[in-house]
Amino acid sequence: MRPRIVTLCAAALVLGTTTGTIPAQATSASTTPLLGTTTATTTGTTGTTGTSLKFTQTNLVSDVKGQAPIHDPALINPWGIAIGKTVWVSDAGSDLSTVYSGAAGALKKEQTEVWIPGGRPTGQVFNPTDEFVVKGKAGSGPASFITVSPSGAVTGWNAEADPKSAIIAAFTRGADYKGLALMETNRGPFLLAADFANGRIHVFDGEFDRVNFGRRAFRDPALPDNYHPFNVEVVGRFVYVAYALRDPETGKSVAGQGKGFVSRFSASGRFLGRLAARGPLNAPWAMTAAPKNFGGLTGAFLVGNFGDGSIHAYNPRNGRHLGALRHPDGRPITISGLWDLQVGTAENGGTNALWFSGGTDGGKHGLLGIITAGGTASQGTPTTNPTHNPNQHNSNNSNNNSGYSY
Predict the structure, then answer these.
(1) Any idea what the CATH number is for the domain that residue 237 is in?
(2) What is the pLDDT of residues 187-233, one digit of tens each?
(3) Of 88, 89, 193, 200, which one is least surrounded by beta carbons within 10 A?
């Protein structure tokens, strides 16, 4: 399948809300100040503003018996999380998407298991629009969930088209897709896929056609050599790209403190500045806005490191480092093989909870759970994590009432 590439003048492209409208507070890129790259060192269990950084990690699902209340043999190297009516998880180690619903103490695994023909699914998004139609033997319809794979495949799942398998909707030879975001704009929805192999963000329209925004779109002009897009997310009114150092020999990310950048872009791909550079970044992948009632960090920009499993909070207005999330006893939260962070919903986890996924033991196993402020979590497995080895390898980004402006 060879992708059709369409050239689009994206100058007037503006991010909208989940309903496709443009936020009243939206400003043009030219009037938005660049985010700084200042970092601040924190000690103890409070951030630079004196805010408590104590949180509770609750393990909910694992393929390893005894590590979480729910045992799911298919949860191997869980990567992207997408939340609609249920929680969908890309299991790169089993070529599946597994589905869960509920919260701590009431979580259950759904019967639905979807095979991903592109193999090793990484990024995944929930699609609330009528676009991105997939066709199968049983019928057709908008893909409810869309995934990408390191093979260069973009796959979509619709229950009417095929209840047991996703369908390859686009394929880019030579691409290594590590992350995926859905961008809803005043000109319709687009998919953004992070191509780690070639250092590009590929854009797809609602018909799964590749769209050319221009050669400078979604490019940080001052990146050091071999730093490539590891993930892409839409948070508030902007697009954020996490960059990791890529080993040109193996094609894998390189772990190490200070090895990472997070940059901000407009919907049309214009570079707006760096949110974070080096400092505590260590092969960063996860990016989201902290949920409501998330301690003193409500609305902060959270970055999860794949390299060391730590989670760091930043002020989204100026890029100031607010500190790392910690357990109630002061130990830093480190999740082996940390991949995604997604804010929960009232039905799934709670609106004040942060879902996490991790490919433990170098991606041989998996862990899914939630993080909540203070000691608010309940009925889960204690937060002891497997030892992390850095050398192994939805529209839920809400910041309502956060005090921060995205």
Answers:
(1) 2.120.10.30
(2) 999 999 999 999 999 999 999 999 999 999 999 999 999 999 999 99
(3) 200
Instruction: Pull the structure tokens for residue 109.
Output: 């695994």
221: left (phi over 0), alpha (psi -120 to 50) or beta: alpha
Closest CA to 105 of 374, 373, 369, 385: 369
CA distance 382 to 104: 12
Residue 184 CB contacts under 8 Å (≥ 6 apart), including other chains: 15, 16, 17, 18, 20, 129, 234, 395
For residues 149 and 9, give the distance between their C-alpha atoms in angstroms, rounded to a whole number.
28
- Is 333 within 8 Å of 45 (Cβ atoms)? no
Is residue 392 domain-resident? no
Q: How far apart are CA 77 and CA 60, in angstroms?
A: 15
Residues 353-389 pLDDT 10s: 999 999 999 999 999 999 999 865 445 554 544 434 4
Question: Would 206 be classed as within a structural domain?
Answer: yes
- Domain range enclosing 313: 55-373
